[in-house]
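Worked example 3 (structure in, sequence out).
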C-alpha cells in the first residue's frame, strides 16, 4: 500500500520532504569517507591525529548545512589545501642523502646498544661473516698485473685539438659538516694523557703506545721511510719475525707517521721531531707530479690505498704544524684523490675505477683531514661519496656491502658507518643507531685488525655503553698481546689475511692507532653542530 501524501515513508525522518537526504546520513557518510582517506595516509595516528580530527569535524559541519554557501566553499577548499600540504611535506624518502629528515619509526635501539650479547643480526639481505673483508680488499693488496695501469689515466675530457678543457672549479667549503667534533685538538702534550684516562684509556695503554712508537723508530730507514719488508730493513735484517712483502713504501711510511702524529709528535714537537721530519720529506720526495695532482701510489707497487694513507699523513702533519713546506704536497695529494674519484662516487685500486667500500673509506678519511688542514676540497666530491654509500647500503644504511650490496662483512659495515658519520648523519638517526648496535654487540676480533680499527673509531665517536664494553676488551687484548722480548719488543703481530702482505709493521701500526683513539680524533658528536651536510 502506498503511503498517503504528506505521510512519511518507512525510514523517512519526521519533517523531511520526499527525496531530501537526512542530515545524519550526510554526517555519517562524510565521516566514514574522510576517516578512511585520512587513515590510509596515516593522518589519524601520532602527531597528525589532531589535524585529521579537525578535518573530520569540518566536513561534518559543512554537510549538515550549518554554514552559508560561500563559507562552506571556503572551508572545504581550505581543508583540501591543508590535506594536500600534509601529504606533500610529510612524506619523506626512506633513504635520504645528507642531513636526513622525516619521522622515523620508534624501536628500542637504545636497548640494542646496551644489550650484552655475542652478536646482533642486522637485516641486510646479505651474509655477514667474521672472516673479514672479501678477498682483494686488504690494505696494500697486490692487483693482478693485467689490470695495472702504467700511465695515469685521463680523468677529464680533452678537446679534439688535444688541449685540456678547463673544468670550472666546484664550490669549496672549509668544513662541509660544520661539526666541532672530529678534530686534532686532543693530540697536544697537555691534553693527551688527560683525554686517555677520561675516555677509557689507562697508564698501561699509554705505555703500550710508547713502546710501539719506540719499535717503529728503531725500524726507520736512513732515507726517512719505512718498509713492510723487515728482512730488508738495515736495523732489523730479519731479527723480527713476520716480515711483510708489499712493496709500496708510501703506504708503510704513511702508516708509521700516522702513529707518531696520533700521539702528538710532529716535526716541531716531541721526542721524535727529526724522525717525523725525515718521514714527511720522504713522502714529499716520492710524490709524482701529474696534471691531476700529486701521485703518492709509489709507482706500480702501490694503489689508491697507498695514496690515501700517505695523503692522510701529509694533511695531518700540515694541520698540526702549519708548516708551509707541507701545504703544496698536501693540496696536490688531495687534488689527485678528487680527480681519481669515479663518476658514481667511489674509489678503487686505480684512478677512475668503480669504487669499493674499503678503498673509499681511506679516501674519505684523507679528504676529511684535508678539510681539517683548511685545504680545498670540492663540495661535489662529498655529494658523490654520499651517492656511492647509498649504492652499497643495506637496511636503509645500517649495513654496507663491498661492491654493491653483496659481500657484506663486519668490516665493510664499520667503514660505511664511518663514512656516514663524516658526511653528517645525526647521532640519533635510526639507521645509524641500528648499525652501531650491530657493531657494539660484537666482540673485538682476535686477528682481524682492519675491522677492529674501524669499529674502535666509530664506537668511540658514537659513545655510550656499547663503546665502554668494546673499549675494555679491545684495550686489554692489545696490552696483553704486545711483544715484550728481543727485537720484536713493543710490536704486535696477528695472523690474518691483511698481515700476509703488510706483516708485523702493518699490524703494529693498526694496534697503535687503536690505542690512540682516546685523543687521536675528537669525538664527532661532541658539541656537534650539524647544520649542513653534503
Amino acid at each position: 500500500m502506498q503511503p498517503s501524501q504528506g505521510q512519511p515513508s518507512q525510514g523517512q525522518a519526521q519533517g523531511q520532504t520526499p527525496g531530501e537526504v537526512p542530515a545524519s546520513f550526510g554526517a555519517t557518510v562524510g565521516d566514514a569517507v574522510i576517516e578512511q582517506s585520512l587513515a590510509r595516509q596515516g593522518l589519524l595516528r601520532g602527531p597528525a591525529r589532531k589535524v585529521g580530527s579537525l578535518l573530520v569535524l569540518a566536513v561534518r559541519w559543512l554537510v549538515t548545512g550549518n554554514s552559508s554557501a560561500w563559507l562552506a566553499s571556503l572551508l572545504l577548499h581550505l581543508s583540501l589545501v591543508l590535506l594536500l600540504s600534509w601529504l606533500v611535506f610529510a612524506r619523506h624518502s626512506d633513504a635520504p642523502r645528507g642531513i636526513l629528515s622525516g619521522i622515523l619509526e620508534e624501536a628500542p635501539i637504545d636497548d640494542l646498544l646496551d644489550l650484552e650479547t655475542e652478536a646482533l643480526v642486522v637485516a641486510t639481505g646479505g651474509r655477514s661473516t667474521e672472516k673479514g673483508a672479501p678477498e682483494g680488499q686488504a690494505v696494500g693488496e697486490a692487483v693482478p698485473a693485467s689490470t695495472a695501469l702504467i700511465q695515469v689515466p685521463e680523468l677529464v675530457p680533452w678537446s679534439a685539438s688535444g688541449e685540456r678543457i678547463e673544468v670550472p672549479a666546484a664550490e669549496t667549503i672549509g668544513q662541509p659538516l660544520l661539526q666541532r667534533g672530529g678534530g686534532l685538538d686532543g693530540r697536544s702534550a697537555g691534553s693527551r694523557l688527560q683525554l686517555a684516562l677520561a675516555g677509557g684509556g689507562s697508564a698501561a695503554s699509554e705505555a703500550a703506545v710508547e713502546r710501539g712508537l719506540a719499535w717503529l723508530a728503531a725500524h726507520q730507514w736512513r732515507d726517512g721511510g719505512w718498509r713492510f719488508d723487515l728482512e730488508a730493513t738495515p736495523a732489523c735484517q730479519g731479527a723480527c719475525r713476520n716480515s711483510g712483502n708489499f712493496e709500496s713504501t708510501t703506504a708503510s711510511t704513511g702508516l708509521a707517521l700516522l702513529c707518531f702524529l696520533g700521539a702528538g709528535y710532529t716535526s716541531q714537537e716531541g721526542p721524535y721531531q727529526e724522525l717525523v721530519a725525515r718521514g714527511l720529506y720522504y713522502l714529499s720526495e716520492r710524490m709524482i707530479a701529474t696534471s691531476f695532482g700529486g701521485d703518492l701510489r709509489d709507482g706500480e707497487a702501490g694503489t689508491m690505498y697507498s695514496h690515501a694513507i700517505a695523503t692522510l699523513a701529509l694533511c695531518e702533519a700540515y694541520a698540526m704544524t702549519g708548516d708551509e713546506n707541507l701545504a703544496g704536497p698536501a693540496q696536490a695529494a688531495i687534488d689527485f684523490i678528487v680527480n681519481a674519484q669515479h663518476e658514481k662516487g667511489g674509489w678503487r685500486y686505480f684512478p677512475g675505477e668503480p669504487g669499493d667500500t674499503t678503498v673509499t673509506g681511506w679516501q674519505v678519511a684523507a679528504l676529511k683531514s684535508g678539510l681539517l688542514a683548511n685545504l680545498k676540497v670540492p663540495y661535489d666530491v662529498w655529494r658523490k661519496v654520499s651517492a656511492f654509500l647509498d649504492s652499497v647500503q643495506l637496511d636503509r644504511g645500517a649495513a654496507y656491502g663491498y661492491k654493491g650490496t653483496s659481500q657484506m662483512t663486519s668490516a665493510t659495515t664499520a667503514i660505511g658507518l664511518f663514512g656516514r658519520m663524516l658526511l653528517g648523519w645525526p647521532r640519533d638517526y635510526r639507521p645509524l643507531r641500528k648499525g652501531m648496535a650491530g657493531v657494539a654487540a660484537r666482540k673485538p676480533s682476535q686477528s682481524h685488525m682492519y675491522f677492529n680499527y674501524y669499529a674502535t673509531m666509530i664506537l668511540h665517536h658514537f659513545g655510550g655503553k656499547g663503546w665502554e664494553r668494546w673499549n675494555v676488551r679491545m684495550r686489554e687484548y692489545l696490552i696483553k698481546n704486545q711483544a715484550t722480548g728481543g727485537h720484536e719488543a713493543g710490536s704486535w703481530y696477528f695472523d690474518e689475511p691483511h698481515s700476509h702482505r703488510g706483516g708485523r709493521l702493518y699490524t703494529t701500526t693498526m694496534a697503535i692507532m687503536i690505542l690512540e683513539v682516546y685523543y687521536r680524533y675528537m669525538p664527532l658528536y661532541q658539541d656537534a653542530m650539524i647544520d649542513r651536510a653534503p
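Notes: The longest strand covers residues 288-290. Residues 1-30, 86-108, 114-180, 527-534 have pLDDT under 50 and may be disordered.
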